[in-house]
Design goal:
With 234 residues, this protein is mostly helical. The chain contains nine helices and no strands.
């Protein structure tokens, strides 16, 4: 019986392995992203063809334009912010499966902390890919179980005593995850946190516009970080 052998690669071999790994990720990721966009775009038109109905294209384009004006810039900003944190593999998985902010980002960042890897390194790329893939699989399994148990658990889910807790699961999740990062850089976190708290208190309707508020909040954090960096306080 052969003994297990540990293969040690030099820097050149590691660089070549990582390059091949990244190239395979990009090929597969691009194919799946394009396939997902095509499938999601075609479903409404296919349903319309089956049932012999179609929307008023003028009204559709007018409605689409109103949404696109907001979400196209937001999606570009999210890509620029999330891609460096998730890496190539993690980004493809996250943008295909969704739940980027409330699932994939926390999972990738926690895996990075546990493994002790640095953003931009091959090790972090692999850790991010594995963690986001695991998150996607677990999320899918939980959804399957939830769908199966939806009817039996309906009395519990609609219980007026528990309903407020279910409505605040996401804020509670973000608060618990954010505290760790706020504690690391309080001088950067305090400004955006106070600003957004005051803004949402004055204009409560903005609480639901998380994606839109992320842009000015992120810009403010970057500005504070840049000023502190220039003053050698970071």
């Amino acid at each position: 019986m052969e003994e297990n052998k540990i293969v040690v690669m030099n820097e050149e071999e590691r660089a070549m392995f990582f390059e091949n790994f990244n190239n395979s990720l990009h090929r597969l990721g691009r194919f799946l992203l394009v396939s997902g966009i095509v499938i999601l775009s075609c479903i409404p038109f296919i349903i319309g063809m089956i049932y012999g109905v179609s929307p008023d294209m003028t009204a559709f384009l007018a409605g689409y334009a109103k949404v696109a004006v907001v979400y196209i810039p937001v999606s570009l900003v999210e890509f620029l912010v999330y891609a460096p944190m998730l890496g190539a593999g993690g980004s493809y998985i996250s943008f295909i499966t969704g739940n980027v902010t409330n699932m994939k980002i926390p999972v990738a960042m926690n895996a990075k902390e546990i493994a002790g890897t640095e953003v931009g390194t091959p090790e972090n790329e692999i850790i991010s890919t594995l963690s986001t893939a695991t998150s996607a699989i677990v999320t899918t399994l939980v959804i399957v179980v939830g769908v199966i148990l939806l009817v039996p658990l309906q009395p519990v889910l609609q219980n007026p005593v528990l309903l407020p807790a279910f409505n605040n699961v996401v804020p509670a999740l973000f608060g618990a995850l954010g505290l760790k990062y706020f504690a690391k850089s309080p001088q950067i976190a305090v400004g955006p946190l106070v600003f957004m708290t005051l803004l949402c208190t004055i204009v409560p309707s903005l609480i639901k516009e998380t994606s839109v508020l992320m842009v000015p909040c992120g810009a403010l954090a970057l500005l504070i970080g840049f000023i502190l960096f220039k003053k050698d306080k970071l």
